Amino acid sequence: MAASSSITTSSTTSKLLFTSSSTSTAARLLPFTTTSSFKCRAFHFHRHRFNPLLHVHVGPFKNPRIVFTHSTNRPPSSFVSAALATEASAKVIDGKKVAKEIRDEVAAEVSKMKEAIGVVPGLAVILVGDRKDSATYVRNKKKACEDVGIKSFDARLPEDSTEEEVIKHISGFNNDPAVHGILVQLPLPSHINEQNVLNAVCIEKDVDGFHPLNIGRLAMRGREPLFVPCTPKGCIELLHRYGVVIKGKRAVVIGRSNIVGMPAALLLQREDATVSVVHSRTKNPEEFTREADIIISAVGQANMVKGSWIKPGAVIIDVGINPVEDSKSPRGYRLVGDVCYDEAIKIASAITPVPGGVGPMTIAMLLSNTLTSAKRIHNFK
Amino acid sequence: MAASSSITTSSTTSKLLFTSSSTSTAARLLPFTTTSSFKCRAFHFHRHRFNPLLHVHVGPFKNPRIVFTHSTNRPPSSFVSAALATEASAKVIDGKKVAKEIRDEVAAEVSKMKEAIGVVPGLAVILVGDRKDSATYVRNKKKACEDVGIKSFDARLPEDSTEEEVIKHISGFNNDPAVHGILVQLPLPSHINEQNVLNAVCIEKDVDGFHPLNIGRLAMRGREPLFVPCTPKGCIELLHRYGVVIKGKRAVVIGRSNIVGMPAALLLQREDATVSVVHSRTKNPEEFTREADIIISAVGQANMVKGSWIKPGAVIIDVGINPVEDSKSPRGYRLVGDVCYDEAIKIASAITPVPGGVGPMTIAMLLSNTLTSAKRIHNFK
């Protein structure tokens, strides 16, 4: 859990890595892959013209179904399906820009709240042990909080802390009226039971939104979760801010993790998409993705989704952040998504880049959730 | 919630009607439809030979994908795909028989438990008001409990009871060590807030399994719900008992209600099916069902799923129970499912009838959940 802790960006280093929980498994199992083995297949649209009949179930020229429509059924002029133009290129969904907008909005709200009722939202982060990456994430969160005027609290506990000690700190934050959100930075040292610790966070302050009670409410019609998990919320927010119609569309979510895939599917379904969840046991996942108007991929498999998997005009949200070996990079590696970007950009109508797509949205949503929590606790509209 | 209360069978009258919550909406909006308007379309396989290319996405003769396989990939001799034989007919999944088996198993376990530790499982049902149908359901549950040796408790409260009075009774059952499961018969009188009442049932005794905490655990990998909702659990149990392989198969759930569709989709996904959820906002739902190895339909639309919607060899679980006008019936109506049975039986490899399919499973699962609860509370393996 604490997914917002799991996908984090440091703007200075551009390191965007999965560090915890289920979605990170693939990335952790395949921490470094040679660029060559993950290079997109030789499926270059500028060389071979795309023959939709070979790759796409429903003939794209007959029915390109561009989903970028607002009130009319005609696509805005800037959104031209790749299938309809020779040199067309998808709209790049700029997560960095949107995240900045959201942080600005949060900052304005925080300031309004402070002025009106004298309350400053507070976020507490609990870090156990000395993992460098975890320390970096915590530092980034602290910085992001400061930037928008949210007060940040942290508890740094030694590696050999007992479960009881960690839970004692959580209880302290649960009872602290200055704290409106609590995050436990994952992973925890192996001698500590993660579920026990996470269950100790009171649901009103569980800004990660991963408490089963929250997930249950997310799944149920007529119920409202207290918090929506940050990364999937960020995905949907990107669709909203780019005017992508979700209702009535076919959506495919690749990956069924607790922190991204599953809640993303529930969110899309809440917005009246028809959702299929594709996972490691799915035979021929491309048969599903080829029919999708919207694809959200969160598996941690570098370049898994090829151009041939994508329906012309589809919108692609790529949550994967995978390091691949790259001798040309000063760091020796570079980060790529689950989707073969070079191919996808020529067939999709819109796509998130990696990095700079979903990554920056996670912290923005965490700040937004913390604000929501403070507003709710203080009944501030 | 209290879904087990919503779809109930009275064996004497064969009245199987939706009475509560979301899945019942369609049935209630369309309480009586003329038989003619809901008659399956003229798509008779004994007259016109089925041309798969007209109706099925993946050519069925090329790839009938019969899902009735255990360890081998060859179908058991009794399960012949309709597409491969002229007069073939699907295996009828006998819910009445399976429900009887389950009740017998529960009875044996109850008796074993009583002998070993002297504990008898107890189920409490709370009925508010004078609805005749609700009274019938409560009576049936009581009878079913008695038959397997589960002690039944009931509280019958007048129509004008206050919310507080109802909750007081729930609290009483929460604290009663002889009660291991609590059901609130729905619908409640309109002046009572259903959610408040249902939330009062302690999660350890919520044998309906509809507490959001349970649904959340059902959705999350690595978590286990305390109870699985009765009707969807019954659907999956039928698949299991008929040896239907779920892992790796394509499943389509029609309907996304809290009490059947949504939890059924979560259960199928837990068993490694690739699940698509089709609903009222889905354009061309038949495009999804035609690709499905397993279809679970729970919408309450008489004969909605035509033969042309079904892939040859698919397995069909029909949760719908819809009354259609029938002048030939002494009652003036008869009950049909969501699936056009006459057509489906000629193309599917297996199908549940209505009545006598999923219906009888709901109470069997309720008894099973009550036993599970008693075992857990008393730590009896």
TrEMBL record, chains A, B:
Q: Which residue ranges traverse the bilayer?
A: none
Tetrahydrofolate dehydrogenase/cyclohydrolase catalytic domain residues: 93-208
Q: Which GO terms describe its biological process?
A: one-carbon metabolic process; photorespiration
Q: Name one GO molecular function term.
A: methylenetetrahydrofolate dehydrogenase (NADP+) activity
Alphabetized UniProt keyword annotations: Hydrolase, Multifunctional enzyme, NADP, One-carbon metabolism, Oxidoreductase, Photorespiration
Superkingdom as given in the UniProt entry:
Eukaryota
Q: What pathway is this protein a component of?
A: One-carbon metabolism; tetrahydrofolate interconversion
Function, as annotated, reads: Catalyzes the oxidation of 5,10-methylenetetrahydrofolate to 5,10-methenyltetrahydrofolate and then the hydrolysis of 5,10-methenyltetrahydrofolate to 10-formyltetrahydrofolate.
Among PANTHER family, the record links this protein to: C-1-TETRAHYDROFOLATE SYNTHASE, CYTOPLASMIC, C-1-TETRAHYDROFOLATE SYNTHASE, CYTOPLASMIC-RELATED
What is the name listed in the Swiss-Prot or TrEMBL entry for this protein? Methenyltetrahydrofolate cyclohydrolase
The protein's organism comes out as Cinchona calisaya
